[in-house]
Amino acid sequence: MYKNILLGVDTHLKNEKALKEVSKLAGEDTVVTIFNVIGEQDAQASIKAGTHLNELTDKRSEELEKTRSILDDYGISYDQIIVRGNPKDELVKHANSGKYEIVVLSNRKAESQKKFVLGSVSHKVAKRATIPVLIVK
């Protein structure tokens, strides 16, 4: 069982399968860090539309409510981090911070026409993280 799990969450994806895997990896003392990145494109588009970054962060937090609820149902403790930046870089930076034992990600693979095995974020994290990475499809 892992004590500190980094869960990369894309609010545009269904994350139920990843959360189920997290429940298998978690023990009594486990803390899952729900990690979401506001990409520069989203941030700039919101600012141009008159939305302050704090409002965008609040909106993202609302979108993560389902994830928090599922973790509550599993009885797993969690905290939440929402940062602005490049999702690939921010996930790798946090994964390699020494605070976590494993990273869990959903595999985007959103467009079936593309012939990539992994999404670009999961691929970069798997390649550059110094801790184990579980990619759930």
Automatic annotation (TrEMBL):
InterPro entries: Rossmann-like_a/b/a_fold, Universal_stress_UspA, UspA. It holds the Pfam family Usp. Residues 1-137 form the UspA domain. Belongs to the universal stress protein A family. This is Transcription factor.
